[in-house]
Design goal:
It is built from ten helices and nine strands. The chain has a five-stranded antiparallel sheet. Strands 1-4-2-3 form a four-stranded antiparallel sheet, covered by helices on one side. By secondary structure, it is α+β, with helices and mostly antiparallel strands. The termini are far apart.
């Protein structure tokens, strides 16, 4: 039955992405989507996904975790790019013996396709191969009806492992840009754990009441403002200029900015965790920042 449902939904994604989106939206958020008058952030992302980002060559290029590098270089910002060691078209091409002790493997056609290796000697290579093989077979866009991933030529990327002086993974700074203007940043901490935490901060480093982690940890939250933080907003403004909405992800390494990726539909537009009991209208508040006209 599970395979049959998947087969039917796959056909539906091809025939009517709008109907498939309506089904997923209700399934994940337990509410009907208003396509005629979208108001919330999630609703507006769905509208963009189907009306602006569905057949947009630049969006497809920038959603591609490898091809986006060309966009960055054309803007004269290639100094932001992380070092790439190798690229391959399938898992059988990977020469594991040539890889450094620390590296990151990614597939370029979706989200969550990452293997972070801080010690090759302890890596289960067979398990890694099986993961990558599975990912390369998947048409990620069907999972979420994110059409920007549909036409990406699949690749495997091996890039430099980024770490702090203590050997931990650096914080991830995700700048939300609305109509070319960076408004706030989501800071992702404890990335090396299975339960990373997310906090929303203003440009002045004041916490915003968005998300469940704000509700849980606001009284004990102490995140020092990082060196080079202001640069993130300057670079995000340049990178986001052509798009109604995009999230620009960065890392900071001792004040040096490293580009992560461009994300056009965070949480695929089904983010149930934006709201919290203290601020049940966060989705609506953020939606007001995005002008679809």
């Amino acid at each position: 039955m599970k395979h049959l449902k998947r087969f039917v939904f796959t056909i539906l994604c091809h025939i009517s992405p709008k109907l498939a989106t309506q089904i997923l939206f209700y399934k994940r958020l337990r509410k009907k989507i208003n396509f005629n008058f979208p108001e919330t952030f999630n609703e507006k992302l769905q509208w963009l996904k189907l009306n602006k980002y569905d057949n947009n060559k630049l969006v497809t290029t920038c959603a591609d975790k490898y091809a986006v590098r060309e966009y960055i270089q054309n803007l004269g910002l290639d100094h932001l790019l992380n070092e790439i060691y190798y690229t391959w078209d399938n898992e059988n091409e990977i020469a594991w013996e040539k890889l450094p002790q620390k590296f990151v493997l990614k597939c370029n056609h979706g989200a969550g396709y990452n293997i972070i290796c801080n010690n090759k000697d302890s890596l289960d290579i067979q398990q890694a191969k099986e993961k990558i093989k599975k990912w390369m077979k998947e048409n990620y866009w069907i999972n979420t009806v994110e059409l920007c991933y549909k036409k990406i030529n699949k690749k495997i990327i091996c890039e430099k492992f980024i770490e702090t002086e203590s050997g931990a993974l650096p914080y991830d700074y995700k700048v939300f840009c609305f109509n070319g203007i960076p408004k706030f940043v989501m800071v992702c901490t404890e990335r090396e754990t299975k339960k990373p935490k997310y906090y929303f901060m203003t440009k002045d480093w004041e916490i915003l009441p968005y998300g469940l982690d704000y509700q849980k940890f606001k009284s004990t939250l102490k995140i020092p403002k990082p060196q080079g933080f202001e640069k993130l907003f300057d670079y995000a403004k340049t990178l986001s200029e052509p798009f109604p909405f995009v999230r620009v992800d960065f890392y900071l390494d001792n004040g040096n900015v490293i580009f992560g990726e461009l994300t056009f539909t965070p949480a695929a537009g089904y983010d149930a965790e934006l709201n919290n009991p203290e601020n049940p209208y966060a989705d609506l508040e953020i939606g007001k920042l995005l002008n679809l006209k």
